């Protein structure tokens, strides 16, 4: 019976694949209009050349692998197959293609951000001998300028003390990066070593300095014309809201996760179920109700109101993850402390909190990154250019009434994704370990 | 008396005490707020901010909790949950209840239960239950009924406001059902919404064939497809990068995470520009390969392909990292044993690696399905969608349930029909719950908790 079901499953799967390949796909192709718009360069049977080029590359790899193995075999007087080397070469070729796929949008947006002409929607192709440049597949780097970036910083006044803080913060960050690279070089993985401590301290200093900068940046410092001159303010707003939401997430979930993991009060299981199932209501569809609530509290168009609106959706996941983390820690230390007369609160603050720092960082970062890219709720709750967030500002560049300002959008995208990019690469370890601690249980 | 009474009784006592404390605090906050308003009146336009209620409530709550904690010591266990519970109640449970209520009403952007400021009318004179205005009361207030019977109104002075109901209005006289509590100077019409029972749901299901079913089918295909197009390339990349002899392994690993590290709100908008029919770099690249311009975002079917393409770009780093993480937990001696037994690479892959990956992958796959089922950001940020004949503008080719609900509730072309949007939200809630139950069943998450 089970075998029949399995064959039936495979047969259905095969039918589905056949349908996609022989019915759906030709239907898709038939929807393409066979005409070329002005300025569009089409090479008849270009794919033959591309495939040929790829085959030549494969041939070169095989040739290289064969020669290299031949030489090393001669020298070492042994007989080894050259196929593993071919496999490596092909892997590198494949990785190169994947890298092109992954970085193609990044390359295009970087190029557009340095191009003062609105390149995306220009019909005339750039004058160049290179076919790839003329077809605008590879961006035209003939006219680079900082104009788009300059527009974003137009009329921005930085007070001297803020400039000083900025420089110090940047130095701290630089120190962190240098230390990280150096420690990797000498193979120092212990975070309690003196260098590791220094790295931790300078990272903390960087965080505190950036926090001060974010708090004391005010709308009066932005005197430029046009909405785009407020871009730095938008970044500041977003960082502020995301940071506060992240801290709130940690504060609200830490004690709850502790209670669920360690206490055995009646009603623990039903409460846990409530926490899980409440989260299944699509959060922002309660927006009308949240809007009514926040407007009655008189908090519309304030960051407090926005953070409160976010706060409902951040609790369950963090609680769940933190509970899972605590359950993976041995109870023996806590039990010893309890026998010695410590209260539950002392156990939590003195023993568990220092141990949980990586998990708190993970919960904070996850919330920080998630809130940074949010724009629907922000769009509803914040009015007025001064309190916009990055997402809202970017959306304004592409759907604004002055049509798409592609160059500005590109420059703003590059600058706007930098904080998250840095966070992500800086704390990559926490992201990976947090995800595995939360989801992959052994 | 440190132990809580066991079982349901202890649970109910604790919940009752906590709920009582929260209710008392909320009511006290409200009362104090009203007392403040009554004692020191301020103009209606710049009244006391509403968040004072929260502050007063918290000020009342803390002493109550301290006293309760002294009297009922086992309740202190619950205090660890209290911050989370309070925020959940205020900003998740309350909106859910209110949305559920709206789903049974005809609440729209016009009928929102608020006074219509464009019907502001000055009151000349007040006599008992009668208000006198200059001109025809019915025309000034734009009532629905010919004599304004049953119409709700807001009356204000500089520092006070109240809601009243009309018995009837004729000429320049408005007769209220009860005398106003103060002598008002201005009157507004209130756009009331009404309870309409299951009519919103009837509307959804009566047109199910053209809207609900196609949207739901595409929603499921999208969620499943998004998982497949992300997981398979990610798995392949992870397996390739797990080869310890591969040079530049760490570099590839770090470099390929890029699309995970760029905020979605930015990367999706970049992609919509990249996929432009005439100007997009992707079509230009394909043009060099001999293709005609592909209508990525303007053709209903290609729009769906584009959504999945963006999903591929966005999610393969996550799956690559997950694969590498799961592979790192497989001990090396398993492979050595297989090698000694004479297994070749392919046999090792299908016999050891893939079966060992199944266990950690199932929860990730189901979680990813549930996430993509409600992946609002991606579909919404892809911008205006190609139209499909016979469907409303809120549910076009690429719309999934959640964007349909959002556009119905918040966009002008959906009529800002919050009631209808709320009804769709409830459907989504039940679907998400069903998916999650299946998820828990497969992963055993609930059993583990117990």
From TrEMBL, chain A:
InterPro entries (alphabetical): BP-dep_ABC_trans_perm (IPR050901), MetI-like (IPR000515), MetI-like_sf (IPR035906)
Keyword Cell membrane found: yes
Keywords: Cell membrane, Membrane, Sugar transport, Transmembrane, Transmembrane helix, Transport
GO cellular component terms, A-Z: plasma membrane
Subcellular location(s) of the protein: Cell membrane
PANTHER family: MALTOSE TRANSPORT SYSTEM PERMEASE-RELATED, MALTOSE_MALTODEXTRIN TRANSPORT SYSTEM PERMEASE PROTEIN MALG
Protein's recorded name: Binding-protein-dependent transport system inner membrane protein
UniProt source species: Meiothermus ruber (strain ATCC 35948 / DSM 1279 / VKM B-1258 / 21) (Thermus ruber)
From TrEMBL, chain B:
Keywords, comma-separated and alphabetical: Cell membrane, Membrane, Sugar transport, Transmembrane, Transmembrane helix, Transport
Superkingdom: Bacteria
InterPro entries assigned to the protein according to its UniProt record, in alphabetical order: MalF_N, MetI-like, MetI-like_sf
GO cellular component term, pick one: maltose transport complex
An example molecular function term from Gene Ontology annotations: ABC-type maltose transporter activity
One example of a Gene Ontology biological process annotation: maltodextrin transmembrane transport
Ranges of residues in domain ABC transmembrane type-1: 216-439
Subcellular location: Cell membrane
Membrane-protein topology: Multi-pass membrane protein
Regions that span the bilayer: 12-36, 48-68, 80-104, 216-239, 251-275, 302-320, 361-382, 417-440
Pfam family, one: BPD_transp_1
Protein purpose: Part of the ABC transporter complex MalEFGK involved in maltose/maltodextrin import. Probably responsible for the translocation of the substrate across the membrane.
PANTHER family: MALTOSE/MALTODEXTRIN TRANSPORT SYSTEM PERMEASE PROTEIN MALF (PTHR47314), MALTOSE_MALTODEXTRIN TRANSPORT SYSTEM PERMEASE PROTEIN MALF (PTHR47314:SF1)
Family statement: Belongs to the binding-protein-dependent transport system permease family. MalFG subfamily.
Name this polypeptide is given: Maltose/maltodextrin transport system permease protein
Organism of this sequence: Meiothermus ruber (strain ATCC 35948 / DSM 1279 / VKM B-1258 / 21)
């Amino acid at each position: 019976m089970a075998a029949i079901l399995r064959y039936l499953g495979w047969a259905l799967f095969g039918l589905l694949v056949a349908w996609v390949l022989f019915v759906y796909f030709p239907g898709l192709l038939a929807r393409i209009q066979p005409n070329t718009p002005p300025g569009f360069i089409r090479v008849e049977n270009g794919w033959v050349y591309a495939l040929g080029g790829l085959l030549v590359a494969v041939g070169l790899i095989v040739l290289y692998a064969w020669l290299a193995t031949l030489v090393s075999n001669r020298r070492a007087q042994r007989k080894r197959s050259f196929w593993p080397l071919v496999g490596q070469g092909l892997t590198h070729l494949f990785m190169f293609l994947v890298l092109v796929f992954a970085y193609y949008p990044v390359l295009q947006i970087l190029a557009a951000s340095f191009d003062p002409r609105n390149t995306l929607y220009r019909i005339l192709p750039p004058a160049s001998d290179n076919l790839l440049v003329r077809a605008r597949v590879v961006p035209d780097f003939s006219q680079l300028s900082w104009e788009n970036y300059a527009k974003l910083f137009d009329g921005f006044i930085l007070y001297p003390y803020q400039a000083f803080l900025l420089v110090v913060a940047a130095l701290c960050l630089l120190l962190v990066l240098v230390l990280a690279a150096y420690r990797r070089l000498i193979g120092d993985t212990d975070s309690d070593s003196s260098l590791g401590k220094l790295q931790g301290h300078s990272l903390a200093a960087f965080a505190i300095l950036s926090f001060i900068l974010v708090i004391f940046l005010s709308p009066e410092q932005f005197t430029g014309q046009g909405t785009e001159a407020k871009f730095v303010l938008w970044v500041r707003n977003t960082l502020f809201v995301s940071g506060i939401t992240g801290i709130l997430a940690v504060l609200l979930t830490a004690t709850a996760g502790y209670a669920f993991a360690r206490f055995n009060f009646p009603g623990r299981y039903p409460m846990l179920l409530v926490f899980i199932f409440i989260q299944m209501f699509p959060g922002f569809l309660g927006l009308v109700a949240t809007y009514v609530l926040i407007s009655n509290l008189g908090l519309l168009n304030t960051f407090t109101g926005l953070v409160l609106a976010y706060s409902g959706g951040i609790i369950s996941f963090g609680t769940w993850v933190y509970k899972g983390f605590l359950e993976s820690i041995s109870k023996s230390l806590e039990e010893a402390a309890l026998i010695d007369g410590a209260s539950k609160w002392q156990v939590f603050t003195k023993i568990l909190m220092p141990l949980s720092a990586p998990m708190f960082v993970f919960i904070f970062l996850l919330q920080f990154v998630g809130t940074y890219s949010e724009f629907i709720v922000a769009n509803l709750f914040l009015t007025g250019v001064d309190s916009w967030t990055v997402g809202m500002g970017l959306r304004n560049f592409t759907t604004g009434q002055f049509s798409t300002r592609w160059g500005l959008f590109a420059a703003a995208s590059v600058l706007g994704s930098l904080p998250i990019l840095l966070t992500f690469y800086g704390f990559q370890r926490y992201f990976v370990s947090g995800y595995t601690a939360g989801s992959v249980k052994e | 008396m440190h132990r809580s009474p066991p079982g349901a009784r202890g649970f109910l006592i604790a919940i009752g005490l906590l709920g009582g404390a929260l209710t008392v605090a909320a009511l006290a906050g409200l009362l104090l707020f009203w007392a403040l308003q009554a004692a020191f009146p301020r103009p209606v336009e710049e009244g006391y901010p509403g968040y004072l209620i929260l502050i007063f409530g918290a000020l009342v709550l803390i002493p109550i909790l301290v006293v309760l904690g002294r009297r009922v010591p086992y309740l202190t266990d619950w205090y660890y949950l209290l911050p989370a519970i309070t925020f959940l109640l205020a900003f998740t449970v309350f909106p859910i209840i209110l949305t559920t209520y709206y789903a049974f009403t005809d609440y729209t952007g016009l009928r929102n239960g608020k006074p219509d400021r464009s019907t502001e009318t000055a009151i000349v004179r007040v006599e008992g239950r009668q208000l006198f205005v200059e001109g025809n009361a019915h025309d000034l207030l734009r009532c629905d009924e010919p004599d304004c019977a049953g119409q709700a109104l807001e009356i204000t002075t500089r520092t006070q406001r109240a809601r009243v109901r009309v018995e009837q209005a004729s000429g320049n006289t408005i007769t209220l059902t009860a005398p106003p509590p103060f002598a008002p100077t201005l009157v507004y019409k209130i756009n009331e919404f009404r309870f309409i029972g299951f009519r919103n749901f009837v509307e959804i299901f009566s047109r199910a064939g053209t809207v609900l079913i196609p949207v739901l089918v595409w929603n499921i295909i999208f969620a499943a497809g998004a998982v497949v197009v992300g997981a398979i390339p990610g798995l392949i990349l992870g397996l390739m990068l797990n080869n310890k002899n591969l040079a530049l392994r760490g570099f590839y690993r770090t470099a390929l995470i890029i699309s995970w590290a760029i905020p979605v709100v930015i990367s999706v908008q970049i992609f919509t520009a990249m996929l432009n029919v005439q100007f997009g770099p992707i079509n230009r690249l394909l043009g060099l390969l001999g293709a005609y311009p592909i209508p990525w975002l303007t053709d209903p079917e290609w729009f769906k392909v584009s959504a999945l393409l963006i999903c591929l770009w966005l999610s393969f780093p996550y799956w690559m990292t997950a694969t590498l993480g799961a592979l790192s937990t497989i001990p090396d001696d398993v492979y050595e044993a297989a090698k000694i037994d004479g297994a070749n690479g392919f046999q090792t892959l299908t016999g050891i690696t893939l079966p060992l990956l199944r266990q950690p992958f199932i929860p990730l796959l189901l979680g990813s399905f549930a996430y993509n089922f409600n992946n609002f950001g991606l579909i919404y940020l892809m911008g205006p969608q190609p139209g499909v004949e016979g469907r409303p503008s809120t549910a076009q080719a690429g719309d999934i349930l959640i964007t349909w609900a959002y556009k119905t509730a918040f966009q002008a072309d959906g009529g800002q029909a919050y009631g209808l949007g709320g009804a769709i939200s409830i459907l989504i809630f039940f679907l998400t719950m069903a998916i999650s139950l299946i998820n828990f069943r497969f992963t055993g998450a609930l059993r583990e908790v117990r």
